Protein 1
Amino acid sequence: MNNVYDNILGLIGNTPMVKLNKVTNSIPAKVFAKLESCNPGHSTKDRIALHIIEDAEQKGLLQPGSVIVETTSGNTGFSVAMVSIVKGYDCVLAVSDKTKPEKIAYLKALGAKVYICPANVPADDPRSYYEVAKRIARETPNSIYINQYFNELNIDAHYLTTGPEIWEQTEGRITHLFGCTGTGGTLSGSAKFLKEKNPNIKIIGVDADGSILKGFHETGTINPLDIKPYQIEGMGKNLIPAALLFDQVDEFVRVNDEMSAYRTREIALKEAIMGGYTSGAVTQGLLQYANSHPISEDDVIVLIYPDHGSRYITKVYSDQWMAEQGFVNNCVHNYDEVFGTEYID
Ligand SMILES: Cc1ncc(COP(=O)(O)O)c(C=O)c1O
């Protein structure tokens, strides 16, 4: 039989790359988006969930019924839950009580046990989601804590898969890689592999306005003034993740909520690629970078699109949400006004 898999995990990785034909037209280079939404859990995090769990299996740390613990309501939670089901483990996720009900419903649909912890307590409070996850992992025999921000296997997963895929897909012609950094694993692992192949490849991290990563890369210190609330989920941080290899990154670009939101909607409307908020952010990062750096028509630029837009229907793809943020200029911000919606009785 062709193209059949033993289980859903066989679909992880080998994601396609698609040329952008309109949104980045102002740039002479060829620009490709690597669509991590084509993983079965619809994000790049499938790769790390599978790699970290299989590494623990190889080390003899897991048995049927073992518990996999993580502290996220985001993409990693979905991926860990998915891998746990197929491999016969229990998945426990500690999330903050700010998590939207639909996200918790999604995690439960994938069989996860969810601990909802108060968001407004310090990280070292025993009720915080960090401490709850650590306690469960400590008290449960044969359990592992994924700990994606501080787990080097997060980098390895991308060194072993995402990086080689990009090299092969571009036939070694890639000149620039752009990636949003949350844990930093996707960009760091891919960068490490690609720089070993060709140290001239430029690695550009895209950071959120409100995060400390760009400032830390430039000065080696955390500037408390960089920290402020922002809306883009999954990228940027107010701590330094061990999974981010700063020395692999040539430069960081900082993008804001508003331009990233417009860009996300533009990609859907012009390229028909329904990306998550950080897909818009990484594209915005390239457009800003191109304003101050020479790019030639021989360059081959790869943008990592980390997840699928379906997770953001009530956020960047919602006119109401855009209006609530005050994002009302620059691009389509009201689908009804531009395209019209007719109600037929
Ligand atoms: C939507 C989204 N984009 C980007 C990232 C950043 O990926 P990484 O953690 O590998 O830096 C994440 C990570 O959680 C994410 O959820």
Protein 2
Amino acid sequence: MENNLFDNTEIAFKSKSKMDLYRGYYIFKIISKPIVVSISKFFLTKFPFLLGGLTKWFVKSSIFKQFCGGETEKDCIKTVENLSSSNIYSILDYSVEGLVDNYAFDNTVSRTLNLIDLNTDNNFPFIVFKPTAIGEFSLYEKVSKAESLSIDEELEWNKIIDRFELICERASLKNVSVLIDAEESWIQPSVDQIFENLIIKYNSKRATVYNTVQAYRIDRLFYIKELKNKYFNTSVNIGIKLVRGAYMEKERDRALDLKYTSPIHNSKNETDKSFNDCMNYIFNNINLFSIFIGSHNEQSNTLAIKYMSNHKIPVNDGKVWFSQLYGMSDHISYNLSHLGYNVAKYLPFGPVKDVIPYLLRRADENKSVGGQTSRELSLFSKEINRRKNYSKV
Ligand SMILES: Cc1cc2nc3c(=O)[nH]c(=O)nc-3n(C[C@H](O)[C@H](O)[C@H](O)COP(=O)(O)OP(=O)(O)OC[C@H]3O[C@@H](n4cnc5c(N)ncnc54)[C@H](O)[C@@H]3O)c2cc1C
């Protein structure tokens, strides 16, 4: 009998071969060493041409294989089927970053529309994109600051709005939900504004569009409360993807540089409390909200289950989703889906050289979130040992 809901490694790693387990173990072992991550980061960002031949093969068969589904949508099929056999949905995420022109933005839109069209049998209920993958960062920033736009900028901004519209309209038709990722706080006001226009149009029957709330931001519980006050008397269903937030250091550095008060909570405990408070508030108003919980934190996931039970929400209610990134926290994803909860994994894909920034962020994250890496390591070794002992019986 396991004492923790997520301790069952037999369920967590049931789709992993012995080879997969050893690969996962050694990858987490390597990226738990900050010096190794820093050196790799230096070489891969300063000398990207190094990523050819043997180095590419090494990256592709190690860290890329751990955290990505493949280089193309087609490459991901095996992984998607594998996850699906455990009732876990895949959210294909084209994780190429740093796209900065209209050609690239339109490309992201057509790729996203194609992904929406894959949803033939409710097999791909979500798609996701970053606002800066369909529009220029500086424009989001300007609109967020309520600065006036030149005629050209106005035209470009309208193109961005049209891209959001195109994606959400098609998603609405195909019964797919759209997750809008959150990035830096200083571009978020413009995204929040777009989100509200979209939910009025597309979220009356169900939560087609989800905005991301980063609980490490001091003002986000207030934001959720404001949304409730605005829409509680309407037919709008507010989709919220709740995460802690991935840009903490960048946010703090900028606040320090530009001499304003950091918008981020001062400690991990405060962020944890904020996450739980946001979640509690949403569950208390679940008639109005749909929630997509993106977290690798065991306590938060356990608390969500408790709230669901307190509010008598069926485990597979379409208003509540749990999600983790592919290659991380399988013990949470697989044990939740085993209990019947709705679970989806972000499944990044893209050419190896182009997803390097994504991979480096995963490595960085696992380097700085020491506890999480050692948890992954101990889960992998627990399962390796369990299988060794089992084969001895
Ligand atoms: C499915 C999914 C989707 C995601 N989408 C987004 C997204 O759109 N935008 C985005 O920004 N992130 C996103 N993330 C990443 C997320 O924000 C977190 O960085 C990551 O999941 C780690 O948080 P946790 O809840 O899993 O785990 P935990 O390990 O419990 O929390 C780590 C997080 O706590 C916060 N934290 C750590 N130390 C401190 C401190 N000293 N002071 C204040 N806060 C602190 C940071 O946010 C840190 O990332 C996503 C994650 C998942 C799983």
